[in-house]
Every structure is written in C-alpha cells, then in structure tokens.
C-alpha cells in the first residue's frame, strides 16, 4: 500500500526526468519502471533526514545518465562492427520509375509545405531540410527552444496531414490566420 502511494505520487516526476533524457515516450516509460525498481531496492538506504523527493530525483537522474552511457557504448560498438562496404547500395543508379516517383514526391512536398503557416514551415525547413540544431533554430528565430520544438512537431504533423490529402487527391486546405479558404484539387 505504501509503495503504491510512492509510485502514484512520484510517477510523473520520474517519467519527466526519463523523458528529458531519452526523448521517446515508450523508452521513457521503460526507463521509469527501471528507476522505480531501483528505488524499491534502495529504500532501505534512504536517510530519513534527507528530502525524499530530492532522493528520488537524484536516483532518477543517475540511472538516466547510466542508461545514456550504455546506449552510447552500444552505438559505438555497433558502429565499429559495421563494414561500410555492406552499407553501399548495389547500384547507385535509380530506374526511371524511381526517378519519376521521387520527383512526384518532391513536388507534393513543396505544395504541402506551402500550405503550412509561415511559423511552422520555417521551423520545419530549418530543422529537417537545413539540418540545424534546435538551439541554432532558437537563436536564429529568437525564440525559446521549447517553442521551436513545439513548432517543428506541429509543422511535421500538419505536413504529414497535407501530404496524405495530396496523395489521396483531396482538396488541400491551406492553414491561414483569420479564416479558412479552400483551394481546389491539386493535380
């Protein structure tokens, strides 16, 4: 009963710490479970004079750092074990169908990007096409990094939505402030 209360009261806090480290919901949930297992095993080491919340956050951060280090080591090991010749395509030439398909996709992407509000389009282009870091984008746009991440996320979602509409030949609905005008079907 007491353990359930500890978990219930601290789940969100521990999850948030884990999520900040891994950036993926599923991985953060797994890591949160691992953290609570470690906390459970270490309960007898808690000094009752200390702040319990601080102790939990400290364990959470330490385990997240350990997780990050182990994942980084795995990636380095995998990178050393990969023979680069295995990663080369059998042929660097694309067939005519693949070239046409790629050109069609690029055209759809351009059209879909144009439907995004400028704020979202700018953030997506800087991140996904120009490959700038979140911090570089934040500096360039003079915005907090959290706002940049939010705009990129919303932009990607809206872009995917517009691409689906275009691929299904449905009317594209540009997102504009102050009203919603519809354009015709793009062919």
Quick description:
The protein is an all-alpha fold and 187 residues long. It has helices spanning 2-22, 25-42, 52-81, 96-115, 118-129, 134-141, 145-167. It has two domains: 2-77, RNA polymerase sigma factor, region 2, helix turn helix motif (Rna Polymerase Sigma Factor, Chain: A, Orthogonal Bundle); 97-167, Arc Repressor Mutant, subunit A, CATH 1.10.10.
Please give a handful of descriptors for the protein shown.
single chain, 187 residues, mainly alpha, Rna Polymerase Sigma Factor, Chain: A, Arc Repressor Mutant, subunit A, 7 helices, 71% helix
Written account of the structure:
This protein has helices at residues 2-22, 25-42, 52-81, 96-115, 118-129, 134-141, 145-167. The chain has 187 residues and is mainly alpha-helical. α6 packs across α7 (145-167). The model is unreliable at 177-187 (pLDDT under 50).
Strand count, sense and barrel status of the largest sheet are: none
Low-confidence stretches: 177-187
Order of helices and strands: HHHHHHH
Number of helical segments with 4 or more residues: 7
How many beta-strand segments?
Answer: 0
The CATH class of the largest domain: Mainly Alpha
The CATH architecture of the largest domain can be named as Orthogonal Bundle
Number of domains: 2
Q: Output the radius of gyration.
A: 24 Å
The percent range for strand residues is under 5%
Residues in helices, as a percent range: over 70%
Distance between the termini: 63 Å
Return the average pLDDT rounded to an integer.
Answer: 81
CATH topological fold name of the largest domain: Rna Polymerase Sigma Factor, Chain: A
Tell the overall outline. Answer: elongated
CATH superfamily of the largest domain: RNA polymerase sigma factor, region 2, helix turn helix motif
Report the structural category. Answer: mainly alpha
